[in-house]
Write a structure and sequence with these properties.
Layout (H helix, E strand, L loop, with lengths): L8 E8 L5 H11 L20 H6 L6 E7 L2 E7 L7 H10 L2 E7 L6 H12 L4 E6 L8 H12 L3 E3 L1 E4 L7 E4 L4 E5 L5 E5 L5 H17 L2 H9 L5 H13 L4 E5 L8 H11 L8 E4 L6 E4 L6 E10 L3 E10 L2 E2 L2 E4 L6 E4 L2 E5 L2 E5 L1 E2 L4 E5 L9 E3 L17 E7 L5 H14 L4 E4 L6 E5 L2 H15 L3 E4 L6 E4 L3 E9 L6 E11 L7 E4 L11 H14 L10 E9 L7 H18 L2 E15 L3 H10 L3 E8 L3 E9 L6 H8 L5 E12 L3 H11 L4
Parallel strand pairs: 1-3, 1-4, 4-5, 5-11, 6-11, 31-32
Antiparallel strand pairs: 2-3, 7-8, 8-9, 9-10, 12-13, 14-15, 14-23, 15-22, 16-21, 17-18, 19-20, 19-22, 24-26, 24-27, 25-26, 28-33, 29-30, 30-32, 33-35, 33-36, 34-35
Bound molecules: guanosine-5'-triphosphate and magnesium ion.
């Protein structure tokens, strides 16, 4: 593909609720732009974009794609994104790389759960936004109703710039309200392009009038002219419209049908005309040496940021880069301020969904793909050596669901975990940690589908089977009162005997202090050389646990008396005696189980706040506070036992129509009351682990 100058580029993130037809829309764009020989279909599994096995199996996008379309003398870099909320990481990456967002709406369904959420992400990314009302060919498609809904939810800046001709089965084309040109599909599939016919002229005129009114509302000069009744030319209206869109005040609405390939060419024309070029973008970063703020413009030295990484044993390591300034060339070396290395870039590519195509070079504002840069992670910067700049990392969503990871096949642990780390490079929303207390490897992600697909990807790409299960809770044991106990280990029948005898005083330490060991032996009742063995015995017995096999904590042990035998005493005998004393002592000292408690911060629409609080209460939570944040959101702070938090992500999603999110952090340990404590002790005993 040839390279396009910055002014002739458009970078558009295509976002929206699942199944609204984002991928189908881009299949149609690709076909109309000559980038695909036939019109791909998600339904028939012939999409040029959704092609990964996990996508074909489910009929949904799980990973963002670059879909470059050459349209007239422009290149539109579309970024297709998943609608399913577990893949929000890819949506945010795409928004970071784009200059505008196209929000796809299903005409029969109108605004859905994710519509509001993606709108908010695009708003936070300060991107101009436009709507595409898709599926106009479907029953119950009602353009006017959808527009009304959008205006109620997102304000009067939402303005249709097209109107549909016909609807449902008879939907046949769209009229552009500014140019007053239309394009309709006729029965023999030959498009008819031209002036608006007489029978819809009145409707079109009314739509145009409304459009001009709306544009004028956001443009003082035009408003004056409008009030005076002066004529507003098409050029004036278009200029004001573009200004309003780019300022994030006007949100144009387009419509069509991806499946019937109607309205798609007009959409691409409008994208070229109305949506921003990257030419004027000013990127802000810092000097990696001094940390001072730096600005970059199109003509400055080269800089780029990676917004997505693909790791695949067949395709290799692909980095998706957004060029923020200067020109990028293939076969060149660039500075990589996030690492210590200089990276050597090979061929530059663009992608039409799954298909790669090489590029001779790429201008500022373009989106390119490079292979074999394993040190470059998502969010990293690349730049000219002479004038280095580093951009702020791209936000990764906080994981909400944590599961224990093991290998299905014994002995494959290393293979599974190394595959897991590789996949994490591709998907930074996955976190892999090790719990030092339970010795489990934990994998966290956004939700169940996210982790399910992770396991499927590991199987397909690395031929390993990852097993996911409920993580063990890291309970602990402690005591409530002080006791004195004796432990005596004595075997003296025949041969070399064993003899160890200790008196220990166990007492509770303040919570969180940990264990302590002390000796106050007087007169050598336990000889010096055996004291380290006693201390070691304490550490080992406490680590293995006594009541239910969980580590004993916050206990002070004082070795204050004992006895020995000149021949039969040994380190091993004193260790054994210590274990006997502790097992008896802890059981006598009012032992309790401690459970970990997390502080949880939930964000939910206010409307669902009551249900969420109810759910938290059922999970033995202590509500610390409820605050009003933003327009209609609540923030709930609570302390919740870790054992109750498993699958909370799933509960929260179903309670809040997918709009609630939460973050958690370890707070402290707290005594666990019966009957929970009894249940855990029973479970542990019956599993034979203790
Ligand atoms: N009738 C009709 N069906 C459509 C249209 N566009 C898409 N579909 C169908 O809607 C379903 C979902 O389409 P996709 O393109 O996969 O939707 P998506 O928004 O990419 O979905 P996710 O990737 O899951 O977010 C498929 O069965 C499409 O065939 C349309 O304009 N008209
Ligand atoms: Mg899709």
């Amino acid at each position: 593909m040839k390279s396009y100058p910055s002014t002739n580029l458009r970078n558009v993130a295509v976002i929206g609720h699942g199944k609204t037809g984002k991928t189908s829309l881009l299949d149609a764009c690709l076909f109309d732009a000559g980038g695909a020989k036939r019109l791909g279909s998600v339904e028939d599994k012939t999409s040029a974009i959704d092609h990964e096995a996990e996508e074909l199996r489910r009929g949904m996008t799980v990973s963002a794609k670059l879909v470059a379309c050459e349209w007239q003398d422009y290149k539109i870099n579309f970024l297709d994104t998943p609608g399913y909320p577990d893949f929000v990481g890819d949506v945010k990456g795409a928004l970071a790389a784009a200059d505008s967002a196209l929000i796809v709406i299903s005409a029969p369904a109108g605004i859905e759960m994710e519509t509001e959420r993606v709108w908010q992400y695009a708003e936070e990314a300060l991107l101009p936004r436009a709507f595409f009302v898709n599926k106009m060919d479907r029953e119950q498609a009602d353009f006017d109703r959808v527009v009304e809904e959008l205006r109620v939810r997102f304000g009067t800046g939402v303005v249709p710039v097209q109107i549909p001709i016909g609807k449902e089965a008879s939907f046949q084309g769209v009229v552009d309200l500014l140019t007053l040109r239309m394009r309709v599909m006729t029965h023999d599939d030959e498009p008819q392009v031209g002036e608006v016919p007489a029978y819809i002229r009145a409707e079109v005129e009314a739509g145009r009038q409304k459009l001009i009114e709306s544009i004028a509302e956001f443009h003082n000069e035009l408003l004056e002219k409008y009030i005076e009744g002066a004529e507003i030319t098409e050029v004036e209206a278009a200029a004001a419209l573009i200004e309003g869109i780019q300022a994030g005040k006007i949100f144009p609405v387009f419509c069509g049908s991806a499946k019937a390939n109607i309205g798609i060419r007009k959409l691409m024309n409008s994208i070229v005309e109305y949506l921003p070029t990257p030419y004027f973008k000013v990127a802000i970063g810092t000097d990696p040496e001094t940390g001072n703020i730096k600005e970059r413009r199109t003509e400055d030295a080269f800089s780029a940021q990676s917004f997505k990484t693909v790791v695949d044993p067949f395709v290799g390591h692909l980095s998706f880069l957004r060029i923020l300034s200067g020109e990028m060339r293939g076969d060149a070396s660039y500075c990589h301020p996030n690492g210590t290395d200089t990276v050597r870039v090979g061929t530059l590519f663009t992608m039409r969904g799954k298909q790669q195509e090489s590029l001779p070079s790429a201008a500022a504002g373009d989106i390119v793909v490079t292979a074999k840069l394993p040190s470059v992670r998502t969010g990293d910067s690349l730049c000219d050596k002479a004038d280095a700049i580093q951009y702020e990392a791209i936000e990764t969503p906080a994981p909400m669901l944590e599961m224990a990871a093991t290998a299905e096949k014994k002995g494959e642990e290393d293979k599974v975990f190394s595959a897991l780390y590789k996949q994490q490079e591709e998907d930074p929303a996955i976190a892999v940690t090790k719990n030092p207390e339970t010795h489990e490897t934990l994998v966290s992600g956004i939700g169940e589908v996210h982790l399910e697909i992770l396991a499927e990807k590991l199987a397909r790409k690395f031929s390993v089977t990852l097993k996911l299960g409920e993580p063990k809770v890291a309970y602990r044991e402690t005591i409530r009162k002080s006791v004195k106990v004796q432990g005596k280990h004595k075997k003296q029948s025949g041969g070399h005997g064993q003899y160890g005898d200790v008196w220990l005083e166990l007492s509770p330490q303040p919570a969180g202090e940990g264990n302590a060991f002390q000796e106050t032996i007087f007169g050598g009742s336990v000889p010096r050389q055996y004291i380290p063995a006693v201390e070691k015995g304490v550490a080992e017995t406490f680590a293995a646990g006594i009541v239910a096999g969980y580590p004993v904590t916050d206990v002070k042990v004082n070795l204050y008396d004992g006895s020995y035998h000149t021949v039969d005493s040994s380190e091993a005998a004193f260790k054994a005696a210590t274990a006997i004393a502790l097992k008896k002592g802890v059981m006598e000292a009012s032992p309790v189980l401690l459970e970990p408690i997390d502080t949880v911060t939930v964000r939910t629409p206010e409307y669902y706040m009551g249900d969420v609080v109810g759910k938290l209460n059922a999970k033995r939570a202590r509500i610390l506070g409820i605050e009003h944040v933003g327009r209609d959101m609540s923030r709930i702070q609570a302390e919740v036992p870790v054992s109750e938090l498993y699958r909370f992500a799933t509960d929260l999603r179903s309670l809040t129509q997918g709009r609630g999110t939460y973050a958690r952090a370890f707070s402290r340990y707290e005594p666990l009351a019966d009957p929970e404590a009894k249940k855990i002790i029973e479970r542990r005993r019956s599993s034979g682990e203790n």
